[in-house]
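Hi D.,

Good news: the full-assembly prediction came through. Inputs first.
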Amino acid sequence: MDEAERPGGNGARGVCDDPAVPGPGVRSGLGSARRRLAGIGVGSAAVVGPVALMGAPEPPPDPDARPAGPPERETERALDALRQVAEELGRRARLADGEAVEVLEAQVMMAEDPTLAEAVAASTTAGASAESALHESFGMFRATLAEAGDYLAARVADLDDLAARAVAAAAGRPMPGVPVREEPFILVARDLAPADTALLDLKQVLALVTEQGGPTSHTAILARSRGIPAVVGVAGALAALAALAEDDLVVVDAAEGAVHIDPSEQFVAQAREREAGRRTAAARASAEGATIRTPDGRAVKLLANIGGAADAAEARAAGAEGVGLFRTEVLYLGATRLPTFEEQVEAYRAVFEGFRGSDESGHVIARTLDVGADKPLPFLPRGDEPNPALGVRGIRAFREPAAHEHVLDTQLAALAAAAEGTGTDLWVMAPMIADAAEARWFAAKARAAGIGKVGVMIEVPAAALCAREVLSEVDFASIGTNDLTQYTMAADRLIGALGPFQDAGHPAVLKLIATTACAGAELGKPVGVCGEAAADPRLAAELIRLGVTSLSMAPAAIPEVRAALRSRT
Amino acid sequence: MQRTVTVASRVGLHARPAAVFVKAASAASLPVTIAKEGKEPVNARSILAVLGLDVRGGEDVVLEADGDGAEGILDKLADLLTEDLEG
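Then the structure:
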């Protein structure tokens, strides 16, 4: 959506009392396509390609279900399903190497097994549906192999996998598991779990389309961090796209948040042309490293979110003007004991030195250890909480019990020591600050440890509503839009069904952001954004309009956001 | 025509040796069966049936084929089984 189309989108700064907040906009597509599926776009790229579907695990077919057709038809459906499975696994075998090839070839032999085909045909002839016949026949062989014990345990697992694939293929549903293709493809799934994406060769993936999930789902975060366009929360995507042939092209337009099925040649050509233009603009913006300025001449820094020294090079290459969020917990997550002061100094220094040398990239904002329900630490034992998102997390973990305070003190001292002599302009902020008293408590500790610039993250609506009081205690604030959205909308970040509420562009969230930015402007203190919202090119412009002074995002998103902002500001 | 062979591969007729054997039987011009002592013969072109026999290394199996060229086919398959196919 264009800035000019939005109510109040005239480039003026947000007003403190009642910030002008736009509603959702609609953007029309190019040319024509037979069908358009709408969802939530991640990124701004448009890609053209064939789709590959990832099915969900198959429940066993209902043995009492009546066959869809006469026995001959069921036999044909069942045997065709086996052929499809053999074909898919054969394709995987050709692309695999090493031991995987033999395993896959053995699976192909199983799918083509003549005795299996006989058993399946006997079952359908006796009146079973194709799905039941496949399920039962595989089950028969499974029982025989399972009797042989450990020797054949791996083959039993192979059979289960084959059975699930064959039943899905017979039912016309996508086969479970990550698809494999010779050519790059658009991956379509109900949703992606971390375990799925671990098996996925992302270089082969042109775009991600999921039925579930919102802008902060695992899929969306993965897409942003890897620079892959995605459209999430697309209702009916699997059914609509399953009907396509393997080489049918679709257009995925992340900027528009849409998937176009059966596009005309002209439509495809227009999408490709527009994408080429976007890439050129992004490359130019990146090469020039152009500073983003608001109409009133205010500079807005584009910073990187990083987890360690390894990300520093990527961030610099992407044109980051510094680090807006250094997630220090990466060092702690792999550890079984508390890292010592010396170990921490070494790890932090590696990050700071990764940014030295370039004029403007000596700026690093480190976030102190963010303890969450999803990131438990063995050396900070916590009790069971019925609602961990509202529990002792973030900075709270160091105040209660007080015995954990020393962990924070050691980290603050280590951060200060690591920055010494590196030329780094180090700012340190605390996560999950709820009010001014908590901000004051943290600021006193950080300053005592020798930290020059102390800040807080604004993730709790209470802190945003009282931003003036909170900011009075510190030097800067950074808005974590993922948690701020979750808490404002009372919608868990990871529950797909709540997708529409997980939008940082919701007027309620934007009001809190505007309130915080406004307090910062009045007090002369920087207020940045370091959540997923900053990496959304459309939302980024809105955030700047509301008075945000820096945007921090996954390095891969920086060129795109810079290009989008340059064309608008 | 029958041929009794002792399986040489230490793992028996599992995993790779089974796949190699079934592939060779599938390539043969005549149907071949394989049986373990006291068990029903099964289709040698069926990987699932061959695995189901659960033949261990050192055990005997009986191969059977009938028709033109049966002898050559059995020779070839018997040779495969007396080799160590694990490599």
